[in-house]
């Protein structure tokens, strides 16, 4: 049954990908990207990788769709006609694809227990992490503790993305008079529903943030969900009111605070006599120290991801608003 | 238990039927507003039936509560989304089918 579901989902994934290539309307392509991400999330669920599925659904289908729509609002929704001949790219793609398919012939059989992936570090994580870290959700132990350095790198990458967007676009503060009110002024249904839902979305983000040690979730997903709540607020009530709730400058400070919080946990554990990001030294009991470390660094990740996503949305939104006026 | 299973499968099959008819309507109906009407049928009645069918399959624990929360969430969001879609289409100047026909008749007279 699981195989059948996998096959159906993979077939739908392939159809979606092909449709994306042939469609010229970029708005529809962005929507198909969202569907593609949801299908991948379903495949991850079928593989019992709920944390990855959660990330894919919230980041891939949720926030990237919104950000790509924001890009389309600036650039326009029609694909330009290509002036190059398509022969050479087709040749390159065919050769790469053939090489990749040839490479799969040497892959170990799917799902076999003696595959290299199940014999390298995975047994150690499964056997030792309940004793060493003691979290019910092993994914969080691996992500935040064993692979803490990688996760720090990912957080810095997210932060670097913000720096890139701000260097290219920047968030434009609006002058009072020459900007018409954005948002859905006369849309009472949306106002009421948004007012009702935004606190619930933030509550859910906090749950995902602090329950990540025990169930699927963590800083990345929580940051994205919290950013989604504020994006909804911006869309319904307009950019200027959103700026007065959370200002762009404040978000930039927040984004760097998250990264600094993460890195300072590492430095503090060095100060305590351990290695960088060795949480066992944070408290007298190593397991309690691990819990402290993981909660703090997840908070740092959540703050950075939230601030970066919302800042990027602000940057796109203020640009689109300006180009609407001109 | 058997009775619950039968009721749940009836609900699930009915939900799938409405979902399918919604998808069919989305392709077959003539203009934007009628298509949206079909799509919102999928959003509302099909999800309600399927979720109730799934609730009967749970053993009435925390999963039931989670499904009820999802149901409450969808009951509020999907009509709102349909409403916002229709209102923006109307705001953007899209006419319904009778209005378009009336305009064409005016032009021919």
Structure description:
The complex is a heterodimer of chains A (326) and B (109). With 326 residues, chain A is mainly alpha-helical. Chain A is built from 13 helices and no strands. Chain A folds into two domains: 76 residues, no CATH class; 190 residues, no CATH class. The longest helix of chain A has 40 residues. The termini of chain A are far apart. Chain B has one domain. Chain B is 87% helix and 0% strand. Chain B contains four helices and no strands. In chain B, helix 1 runs antiparallel to helix 2 and helix 2 packs antiparallel against helix 3. Chains A and B meet through helix 9 of A and helix 3 of B.
Report the uncertain regions of chain B: none
> Distance between the terminal alpha carbons of chain A, to the nearest Å?
56 Å
Note the beta-strand portion of chain B.
Answer: under 5%
Our count of helices of chain A gives 13
> Please, how many helices of chain B?
4
Question: What is the helical fraction of chain A, as a range of percent?
Answer: over 70%
Mean pLDDT of chain B: 88
Précis, in short:
By secondary structure, chain A is mainly alpha-helical. Chain A is 75% helix and 0% strand. Chain A is globular.
Task: Summarize this structure as a short list of keywords or feature phrases.
heterodimer; A: 326 residues; mainly alpha; 0% strand; B: 109 residues; 87% helix; elongated
Question: How does the SSE layout of this entry go?
Answer:
The complex is a heterodimer of chains A (326) and B (109).
Chain A: H1 2-22, H2 26-46, H3 50-75, H4 87-104, H5 116-119, H6 122-132, H7 138-146, H8 148-168, H9 188-211, H10 219-237, H11 239-245, H12 248-271, H13 286-325
Helix pairs in contact in A: 1-2, 2-3, 3-10, 3-13, 7-8, 7-13, 8-12, 8-13, 9-10, 10-11, 10-13, 12-13
Chain B: H1 2-28, H2 32-57, H3 62-91, H4 97-108
